[in-house]
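Late entry, 4'-deoxy-4'-aminopyridoxal-5'-phosphate complex.
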Amino acid sequence: MPQVAVEGFAWMDGQVMPLAEARVSLATHALHYGTGCFEGIRAYYNQSEDELYVLKMAEHYQRMAHSCRILRINPGLTPEEMGQATLDLLRQANLKTDLYIRPLAYKAGLGLGLGLTGVADAFAIYCVPLGHYHTAERPLRCCISSWIRPDDNALPVRAKVTGAYINSCLASDDAKINGFDEAILLTADGHVSEGASCNLFMVKRGRLVTPPVTDAILEGITRNTVIELARDLGYAVEERKIDRTELYTADELFLTGTAVEIRAVGEVDHRPIGDGAEGPITRHIRETYEAAARGRDARYRSWVTPVFASMPAAANS
Ligand code: PMP
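Prediction complete; structure with ligand written out below:
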């Protein structure tokens, strides 16, 4: 992912400001203990309509509310209010390009004590321009990581907890140093879980198969979207445990995530998937998803929230 942080804007304490001005104390609890939870949301610019569309905003803030509940964080805003704050931020930022939106609810107390109860909470959002997460044009080269996903009773990866991303950073860093684009992690009992920053689907004999939500995955919004889309397009989808070597013999394999979008996997552990090119079912789902995400598919208009068309009249004048 490009290391962008310059041309961005932030929403903090009800105010919109340049990202560089949104600061926290060095003593912040979340900075030391990883006690925050976050979301990654995309807004796509539709040039022909001169409109910015936020994809699946309600679903992201619903997941954030669940993450907050697990971490005992009171962000002080309802999911609807977080959505409103996001629209305020995007309107004032007025960036007409594809954006990544990063809300963060965190333990903002300045004390040294461990624990969650009684520690002050805060909520903020920032947005930055973002093109493709994986910049390579070709299908991705993946490896099975020697790092495993943590068990739910050790570190709940169902919640999008900041501290849990140490696991993804270790896996992703190793994969890149070894020449791969993305790491695929297994569960403690050796089943396929997910990518370092994305969920995974394989295609076998025309059916889609993806690991169940109980196999240490983040319950991806894009994963749910792909399941809905694939069924609409007439493909059967199965959620079941996947063995490592099933990946090697898959007809097609693809990754899904808000940042990653839908990306074909061309090889795993140096073994080609199919003929190594993007498969027809992956392409069908990806192209339908990309049009819908930009507000270009009338069937899926409910997935996107227009930023400027829904602007209150007073703000328009
Ligand atoms: N798994 C992990 C570990 C992730 O970081 C992400 C990205 N948020 C996903 C899966 C995909 O989730 P989503 O589709 O909601 O972006």
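Residues 9-129 form a domain with the D-amino Acid Aminotransferase; Chain A, domain 1 fold (CATH 3.30.470.10). Will revisit in the morning.
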